[in-house]
Write a structure and sequence with these properties.
The longest helix has 32 residues. This protein has two domains: 63 residues, no CATH class; 157 residues, no CATH class. The protein is globular. The mean pLDDT is 82. The chain is mostly helical.
């Protein structure tokens, strides 16, 4: 039976944590104040202080995680809105998506092997370079642990956002298309949000590359895993 009181409590705490940390980040746009960093830390602190098991929190706020699935359908909107850009830049976008996805999968597989990581944890590392809804779906499909994958996705996105911001600030204007494709493929939503205020065109291309890369990975991940295991 659903405990509606617990659901309301933990959902409210989660949403409030995100709202507060987002407001703080808007006032002070520092990478270490990103809501994806500070909100989970705040919630974790609450759980530790009040000795609440993660399973209790997950049971109350788990529906928010479930909403990531339906949220994927919203990605159809930017694809439709940017259809002219897709037609114009489909070659660099496609090349960037294929190269970036292959590099991500191969490097993740190799790194896990070097560190002696195997089983579901190794599989959870593979889809770390796509946006969270896609990554969690891919992780579940290939036998990984979606919750662990989400952690890898956030860590990858933060690192990619930092490198992407530096690339946009120091990069040459003629390379904006490549920069957008690179950030969207490697740093997904976190990187896209970080560079959007710096250069709208790069942000638009990054968002487009992020969505298309997620769809490509979702379709080809089982085939890539079969190839790696073979």
């Amino acid at each position: 039976m659903i405990d509606w009181a617990a659901t309301a409590l933990w959902s409210a705490i989660t949403l409030a944590s995100f709202a507060v940390t987002r407001a703080v980040h808007r006032r002070r746009p520092r990478w270490w104040l990103m809501p994806l960093i500070t909100a989970p830390l705040g919630i974790a602190l609450i759980l530790l202080v009040f000795h609440v098991p993660y399973s209790t929190y997950r049971a109350g706020a788990g529906w928010l995680l479930w909403m990531l699935g339906p949220a994927v359908t919203a990605f159809a909107v930017p694809i439709y809105d940017q259809r002219a850009m897709i037609r114009r830049y489909w070659r660099p976008l496609l090349a960037g998506m294929i190269a970036g996805s292959a590099t991500s999968f191969l490097s993740g597989w190799a790194l896990a092997g070097v560190l002696g990581i195997d089983g579901p944890l190794r599989l959870s590392l593979l889809p770390r370079s796509v946006s969270t809804p896609f990554a969690m779906a891919i992780s579940a499909e290939i036998g990984g642990m979606p919750d662990i994958t989400a952690v890898f996705v956030i860590a990858t996105g933060i690192l990619g956002a930092l490198l992407g911001e530096a690339a946009v600030k120091r990069g040459i204007p003629s390379g904006r298309t490549a920069q957008g494709a690179m950030i969207g493929v490697a740093a997904h939503a976190i990187g896209t949000a970080q560079v959007q205020p710096l250069h709208p065109r790069v942000g638009a291309l990054a968002g487009l590359a992020m969505v298309l890369t997620g769809l490509l990975n979702l379709a080809l991940a089982p085939l890539a895993l079969w190839f790696l295991r073979g």
